[in-house]
Amino acid sequence: MTMQPRTDNGPLQQLDQWDDFVATRYRQGKSEEDFRNYKADANPTVTEFYRQNHAFQTLDFVLSKKAEYCGLHRDRQSIWEMAEYLNTLVDDSDPDTDLTQIEHLLQTAEAIRKDGHPRWFILAGFVHDLGKVLCLYGEPQWAVVGDTFPVGCGYSDQIVFPEFFAANPDSKIPEYRTDYGIYEPNCGLDKVHLSFGHDEYIYQATRGYLPEEAQYMLRYHSFYAAHRHGAYRHLMNAQDERMFEWVRKFNQYDLYSKGRERPKTQEILPYYQDLVSEFFPDRIAW
Ligand SMILES: [Fe+2]
Ligand SMILES: [Fe+2]
Question: Could you read off the pLDDT of 13-41 as tens digits, one per residue?
């Protein structure tokens, strides 16, 4: 495996290093106490990635990126065109062992399909990481991947590397330091700004075409402090609580489908072409 950085927009050799760290952190059979030792699983590269992510994701930054991307004025492309585009992200990985981005998406979706879940659930698996194209738009790694967390209110100690928030300018603003910060009690997550990344972008691009359960899966799949550790319930409403059951169901496939055999892409492609056209028009706004 070659070790030159694939891009100069962050410390990770490839974005998947973050996904791999999360999967290791939540290895099956690990206890909550083991999880607290997550630092043992983080190499210096991943640690540096979190240092940047926690220092630079401010409320102002999130609002500016939402204004830039979430109006979806950038492009009109099919799901397949975006998947092919995202696939150009792997140039630096080992083609024999590392999955391409499309293979990760297919592998997640196939694991969901094998368990007999509804078609929209399988489709959510297939599109869930397409928002990583943000990296190809030139966004730094810390604005594309990483555990997401609310901005504009106090940071939970259930977020990994909480000590890195000391370098975030928002941590000096008293209004943002309380539990509720700029939000109302149980206002619902739709009103809460999370750190910006691939989750929010794919949610915005696909929300008009997928059922609410799938929208939650896409929007909150990296919000580990909440779906894995129960943090931020004081900002969630009853609908969030109900829908997070689905986010948790989805997370099992995101985390644990990777070790499985390489998907037989050519064989299963027709199924996914059908599935995508069932829910999406030829082109959607990005
Ligand atoms: Fe993801
Ligand atoms: Fe993923």
Answer: 888 899 999 999 998 888 777 778 899 88
| Residue 56 alpha carbon to ligand 2 centre in Å | 23
Separation CA 136–CA 160 (nearest Å): 26
- Which residues are registered as beta bridge partners of 77? 284
Neighbours of ion ligand 2 (CB under 5 A): 129, 254
The dihedral sign for the CA sequence 103, 109, 114, 119: negative
For 204, half-sphere exposure in the C-beta direction (CA atoms, 13 angstrom radius) is 20
User: In the chain, what's the furthest Cα-to-Cα distance?
Assistant: 56
- β-strands 284-285, 76-77 pairing: antiparallel
Angle separating helix axes 265-279 and 101-114, nearest 10 degrees: 80
Shortest CA distance to 133 belongs to which of 69, 192, 195, 194? Answer: 69
Could you read off the pLDDT of 262-280 as tens digits, one per residue? Answer: 899 999 999 999 999 999 9
pTM of the model: 0.94
Which ligand is closest in space to the CA of residue 145?
1
Where residue 230 falls (left for φ over 0; alpha for ψ -120 to 50; beta otherwise) is left
- How remote is the CA of residue 168 from the centroid of ligand 1, in Å? 23
Measured distance CA(8)–CA(140) in Å, rounded: 8
Output DSSP code: residue 166: G
d(CA 120, CA 215): 10
Q: What is the DSSP string of 77-142?
A: E-HHHHHHHHHGGGTTS-TTTSPPHHHHHHHHHHHHHHTT--HHHHHHHHHTTGGGGGGTTT--GG
In angstroms, what is the span from residue 247 Cα to ligand 1's centroid? 12
Ligand nearest to the CA of 131: 1
128 C-alpha vs ligand 1 centroid, how far in Å?
Answer: 6
